[in-house]
Amino acid sequence: MTVQRHTITLLSMAMIGLTLTTLSACSGLSASSTASTTQAQATQAMTMTKTLTTGEHLLVLPGQRSFSIGPDSPAQLTDTQTGQPDWQASWRGELLDAREMTANGQTVIKIVSLDQQNQLHLLTLVASTDTKSGYTLQQDAVSAPLQQPLEGLCLYAPLSNSQSANLQLFLLGEDAMARQLVLTPTANGSASQPHTTPLNTTLLRQFAIAPGAQYCVADDQRDTLYISEESVGVWRMNARAESDAAREMIDLTHPFGHIQGQAGAITLSQGSLWLAESEGHRLYQYQQDNGRYLGHTLLAETIAIDTLLTLPQDTRAGALDKHSGSLIMLDLPSLPAVEVTDVITTVVANGETQPVKKAGDAADDPAIWVNPNQPDASRVLGTNKKQGLYVYDLDGTELQELLVDRVNNVDLRQGFHYRNQPMDIAAASQRDRHSIALFRIQPQTGVVSSAGEIVTTLDDVYGLCMYQNRARQVFVFINDQDGRYQQYQILDSATGWQGQLVREFAVASQPEGCAADDRAQRLFVGEENRAVWTLPAEPDATTGMLEIASVGEWLHADIEGMDIYQTATANYLLVSSQGNDSYVLFNATPPYQYIGRFRVGLNAAKGIDGASETDGLAISSAFLGDRYPLGMLVVQDGRNLMPEQNQNFKYIDWREIKTLFDLQ
């Protein structure tokens, strides 16, 4: 094949002074991000390369290669300099998306497409050390035929520190439903077809979309999914499977927005979202971080863009000119775009508990009991705030169910006494009777049993945590939804445990989570919609509070569970930032610096989904066997997927977090 090259001049124009009152009202974006535009350069030259490669979709690859496919054109890898194919498949198809990755120092391209039998193909191309020599097909993983006809698809590769992280895929169906899948290729092919292997697909969630929505693209760094709806405009929503399927408008079609014709294909390029006017000659640009309109580019009126695709790190776009039926390559103008500086990386869940036995918002808060003689036989206590307290082993199997009514938060301490005999203790906030529910834990076996209640004078008890000072005295902090805290000392006696009120204090609005640093004799409390505070934990100490961090850049309301990870040299405070499904790590010693944040994502290899809307969490730094040699984090999961079930608790190996932040 030969390649024809033409240079055309494009006018890049900004629409100035247009106020989108309707758009601002329906999207929830700030006026500055929707109503104002930036002044683009007056004139820009862009190179358009018209190729003889056939098909409907074109992907420009690093080096001198491209990938194309169409209903009447086989999938093929082409040398863009000569026009000759390096490799050609036996199958044809439609729809295309890709991701560029690095593995063992080599560039790897993951490409997904749909063949004429409605089977997904996930291709793995590995670049040669000499990029001019092209790519080697390492694997073609093929799924079973899909049951639903498709309008569009797009890949999503959430950022993860796990080497086993899997690609996800959004499918836009003709039935006006979107489905989010995990793609898991098997390892080996057959002797006759060594590159062809089965592709397993696991449904994560499905949600409604507009009828006829054909185009989508996912922003991996910002966990954002964009969907183009032809007659309305372009939307964005959270791409994480554990998130709400709520959407917000980026831009509308005329007369309510900037899009003059109908919304068409979309792609991402170096921090910008590009939208092609459906079968038109305008390309619209938006900042990925806030959706702000940056301007539009006019192509020659003889061009009608139908498909548009880039690798997110590239500025070269492959497109179909519907007027001529030709595949073309465009160099997208490089206008300023805001980079993400504080990316929220994902760590994988290593285990999970069985679901709780009540539907809805039921699971709430965990605590970890360490078996001193057999660490891998340690236990996790978890509350079902509609029913009682559960006890699980480190495999997540339910061992005990204590039906003690509505207990919300739970905490425990080891090395105490009950009737003058060695006994570990757990406490939970009992909402039905405005009390502290107490539990005995057998020090050798971890068997839990009820040990009575301490009635408080609070009106609506909510959160709770425990503290054990240097004198081995045990205290319980319990709070009310109105902000009040009470501190009770737990006293042993011949008749069992008793509670003595020793201190009271308050925050200005609703609290819940709290955690005590026993070594530093310090308490950390969370005011859900405002801030994390710290104050001394001893009963005779001041109640003056120091703010550590407020709701804003790192913390998103509600501030929920929190706990301390502590070793001889390390001291960290972890807080659940429920509003954006993340966990924020601080140094637990003054001046309490922010360290970083992360999310808990799915582990496709083990069939464990991620965590979202976390209420409570618990951490232990103890050796808990070979699976958790540096301890573990347990978090409540507000949406239990793969398959969809009642809520549960997820287990995370602390080594994942240590590696992510290069901790002590």
From TrEMBL:
Top-level taxonomic group: Bacteria
Residue ranges annotated for the BPP domain, each copy included: 21-335, 337-661
One Pfam family linked to the record: Phytase
Name of the protein this chain belongs to: Phytase
Secretion signal, residue range per the UniProt entry: 1-25
InterPro entries per record: 6-blade_b-propeller_TolB-like, B-propeller_Phytase
Keywords assigned: Signal
Keyword Signal: yes
